[in-house]
């Protein structure tokens, strides 16, 4: 490493270190008035602590939340693809307020063509689920996908949204008003604090085809199954009118459902009966109450055996599911499930399902959990091998970091939804591929996808199904925290799988121009995946591994989870708990990672190697002479010397004087007398300090750093020495507290530890977006180059249309003949 050498002088009165370097050294790149305190306290933007939420991040001594209980009777009409149901709701007002009306969520109304979601969907842009893309230039057409056209056709051909038939209380009609995906019910009389009200809703709706509209629930049709008319898988969620949350921080959370911001709900007890075709298998939130009515004795025996089995046991085998697929029936069965203290209810129904299960033993009140999977033949060996085992693995890891799983079942169901979570049940999409020989195979990516999505969706039982955050407002509080934990669980399963939670996984997003703060409301986020999943997960990963360390982080994170079990935390509760329980001020971290669009880019700009002046002129002046001689020889002087040109003073010796044999580094007795006076004036401790420092003759390296990204972070250094050894130095982020744009740091090494290079963040721990300015000296940037052959342009102007016009038009008969020859 070529450093910039300079001297380090003693300032006698205080024996401080005074560095003589160029004027740019350690300069703070700051103009008058533009200083920003990256470490100011976050309380200025967080809500003021109160009796409901205290300053430590805990629920306050007057914390409250509502409870809503449901009794639902539903009928699935497979042919009409429709649900008709009635529900009896008991609303418990635990708030200190008197309520004159209640707000109900009607999420199925999102699919109406006059919904706010449909009317505000943009063409192209950053909607994430947008139907098309705009043209890049005037001479190219805009693009509208066939999937978007299919969705338009489905919405046009079906009457979608909830059909509310009646709303009654004690037999009397209640007045209601539907506002988009919400319904206000006006109560017959005000509901006072501590009181409850009962009312009923009769309703129905046509189920959407998930593949057509891209929803969080719906049906999938299999026309090629052997049963006449094919078969279906029904995934039912957001399927009943349910109470919006009433909270201490916002009152009614009645923000329109636009499709991205998920659901803010109340806990309650559910008693749900679902009447379905008699040959269907049903998976649902809760515990089956009438197994003798819907399961065979063999299935019940297998279910009992699965409770203590070491590997999953089939309750419905593949062979039985395949036989189920062929027939069909006009008869029905009613499956009844109960679930206590859950914030939602979802279910799935199909005759295609095979079903396996395995019991899990754990500590805590819920000592036994049934991990179960439901999937069709299309799931194949992929689901047989991995789904239920991934459920078990998820519970094992998440329990360590939070609390023991509080529910009796944890289920994974295969259907058209790629990944969606509900209490005790999740919908997961990966499948196998049917090959020509009749076998079913899957790719490495499908295997990774299944394991990852099961861990993620089952993990959502902890966040937000138990730790009940407001998903519509703060998506990151469930997706980000859960993505962090699914990364922990995933890497304990197979670290070779790219889990997307490493610091390097977010640098592209953080340096991009379309980043928005993590604290942005869900529907306004431009890129939801990087913003609500990856960035907060990476932030927590860095907080655990780099800033707090595992011991402090794990204690604080578990404290947060246990404090807010079955309660509704806000971001301030999370931030305050993590600080209060870890004992570390993290306001700078929350502000930078969650409230700004700053990114991490720490550059090491210069390294100066300093040597301590001894103040002894016989030593210091000789060192300066050697440093002068070390400078490159002038090119003119070198060429004159090579040409044999003799200097004038060497040609005429008689003109030489004192300065031809003595230079500015010559030591005089006056210098020596001054040195003696310097020593004489030192206090004993000062002389001892100086003599030790001169004796040790250590290396003093001053390093200049710039914060180019704006996000303050620890400076992590790897020092490489001439003897082949390495040393790590970890400088806390607080080094930037007075100078957030540029800082300098003194590193002292022993005389024999000669520094040759420095690397910032060598293990890519901090999500630094530009690793090339992390090296001093700068390295040659490694990359690749590929040889290629020039190709003609791809436009039609370069196509041989004259030749192409000679091609014969093929017919369907040609395709059939080709297939017949292939079969032969």
Automatic annotation (TrEMBL):
A Pfam match: Peptidase_M1
Name of the protein: M1 family metallopeptidase
Transmembrane segments: none
Signal peptide stretch: 1-26
Region annotation (Disordered) ranges: 117-140, 803-824
Domain of life: Bacteria
Keywords: Signal
InterPro entries: Peptidase_M1_aminopeptidases, Peptidase_M1_dom, Peptidase_M4/M1_CTD_sf
Gene3D superfamilies (alphabetical): Neutral Protease Domain 2
Record keyword Methyltransferase present: no
Xref: CDD domains: M1_APN_like
SUPFAM superfamilies (alphabetical): Metalloproteases ('zincins'), catalytic domain
Peptidase M1 membrane alanine aminopeptidase domain mapped to chain residues: 386-593
């Amino acid at each position: 490493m070529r450093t910039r050498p300079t001297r380090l002088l003693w300032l006698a009165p205080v024996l401080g270190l005074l560095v003589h370097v160029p004027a740019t050294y350690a300069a703070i790149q700051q103009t008058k008035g533009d200083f920003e305190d990256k470490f100011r306290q976050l309380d200025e933007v967080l809500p003021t602590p109160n009796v409901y939420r205290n300053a430590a991040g805990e629920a306050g001594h007057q914390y409250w939340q509502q409870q809503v209980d449901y009794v639902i009777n539903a009928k699935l009409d497979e042919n009409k693809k429709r649900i008709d149901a009635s529900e009896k709701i008991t609303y418990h007002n635990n708030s200190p307020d008197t309520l004159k009306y209640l707000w109900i969520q009607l999420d199925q109304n999102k699919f109406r063509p006059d919904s706010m979601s449909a009317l505000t969907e943009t063409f192209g842009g950053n909607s994430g689920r947008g139907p098309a893309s705009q043209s890049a230039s005037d001479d190219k057409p805009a693009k509208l996908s066939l999937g978007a056209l299919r969705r338009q056709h489905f919405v046009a051909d079906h009457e979608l949204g909830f059909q509310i038939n009646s709303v009654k209380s004690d037999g009397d009609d209640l007045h209601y008003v539907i506002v988009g995906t919400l319904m206000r019910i006006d109560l017959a009389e005000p509901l006072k604090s501590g009181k409850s009200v009962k009312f009923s809703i009769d309703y129905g709706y046509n189920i959407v085809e998930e593949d057509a509209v891209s929803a969080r629930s719906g049906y999938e049709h299999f026309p090629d199954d052997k049963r006449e008319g094919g078969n279906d898988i029904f995934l039912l969620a957001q399927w009943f009118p349910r109470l919006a949350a009433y909270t201490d921080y916002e009152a009614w959370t009645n923000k329109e459902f636009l499709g991205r911001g998920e659901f803010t709900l109340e806990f309650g007890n559910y008693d749900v009966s679902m009447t379905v075709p008699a040959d269907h298998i049903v998976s649902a939130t809760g515990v089956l109450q009438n197994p003798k009515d819907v399961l065979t004795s063999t299935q019940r025996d297998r279910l009992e055996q699965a409770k203590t089995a070491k590997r999953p046991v089939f309750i419905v085998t593949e062979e039985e599911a395949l036989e189920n697929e062929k027939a069909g029936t006009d008869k029905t069965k009613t499956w009844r499930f109960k679930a206590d203290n859950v914030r939602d209810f979802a279910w799935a129904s199909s005759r295609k399902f095979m079903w396996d299960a395995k019991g899990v033993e754990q500590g805590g009140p819920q000592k036994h959990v049934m991990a179960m999977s439901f999937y069709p033949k299309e799931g194949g060996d992929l689901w047989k091998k991995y789904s239920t085992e991934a459920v078990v693995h998820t519970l094992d890891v998440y329990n360590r970091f939070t609390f023991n799983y509080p529910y009796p079942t944890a289920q994974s169901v295969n259907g058209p939804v790629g990944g969606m979570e509900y209490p005790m049940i999740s919908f997961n999409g990966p499948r196998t591929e049917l090959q020509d020989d009749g076998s079913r195979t899957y790719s490495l990516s499908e295997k990774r996808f299944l394991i990852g999505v099961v861990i993620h969706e089952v993990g959502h039982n902890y966040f937000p199904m138990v730790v009940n955050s407001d998903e519509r407002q703060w998506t990151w509080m469930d997706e980000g925290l859960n993505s962090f934990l699914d990364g922990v669980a995933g890497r304990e399963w197979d670290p070779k799988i790219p889990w997307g939670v490493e610091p390097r996984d977010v640098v592209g997003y953080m340096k991009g121009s379309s980043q928005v703060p993590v604290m942005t409301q869900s529907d306004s986020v431009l890129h939801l995946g990087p913003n609500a999943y990856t960035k907060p997960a990476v932030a927590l990963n860095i907080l655990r591994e780099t800033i707090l360390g595992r011991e402090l982080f794990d204690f604080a994170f578990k404290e947060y989870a246990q404090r807010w079990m079955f309660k509704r935390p806000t971001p301030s509760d999370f931030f305050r708990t993590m600080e209060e329980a870890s004992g570390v001020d993290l306001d700078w971290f929350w502000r930078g990672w969650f409230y700004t669009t700053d990114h991490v880019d720490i550059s090491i700009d210069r390294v100066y190697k300093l040597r301590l002046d001894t103040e002894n002129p016989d030593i210091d002046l000789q060192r300066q002479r050697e440093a002068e001689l070390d400078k490159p020889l002038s090119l003119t002087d070198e060429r004159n010397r090579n040409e044999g040109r003799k200097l004038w003073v060497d040609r005429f010796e008689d003109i030489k004087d004192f300065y031809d044999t003595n230079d500015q580094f010559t030591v005089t007795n006056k210098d020596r007398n001054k040195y003696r006076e310097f020593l004489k004036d030192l206090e004993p401790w000062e002389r001892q300090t100086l003599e030790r420092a001169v004796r040790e003759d250590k290396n003093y390296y001053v390093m200049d750093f710039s914060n180019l990204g704006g996000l303050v972070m620890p400076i992590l250094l790897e020092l490489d020495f001439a003897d082949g050894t390495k040393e790590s130095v970890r400088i806390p982020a607080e080094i930037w507290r007075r100078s957030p744009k540029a800082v300098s740091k003194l590193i002292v090494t022993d005389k024999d530890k000669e520094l040759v290079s420095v690397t910032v963040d060598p293990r890519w721990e901090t999500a630094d977006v530009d690793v090339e300015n992390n090296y001093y000296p700068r390295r040659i940037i490694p990359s690749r180059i590929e040889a290629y052959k020039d190709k003609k342009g791809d436009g039609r102007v370069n196509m041989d249309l004259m030749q192409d016009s000679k091609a014969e038009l093929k017919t369907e008969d040609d395709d059939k003949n080709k297939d017949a020859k292939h079969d032969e």
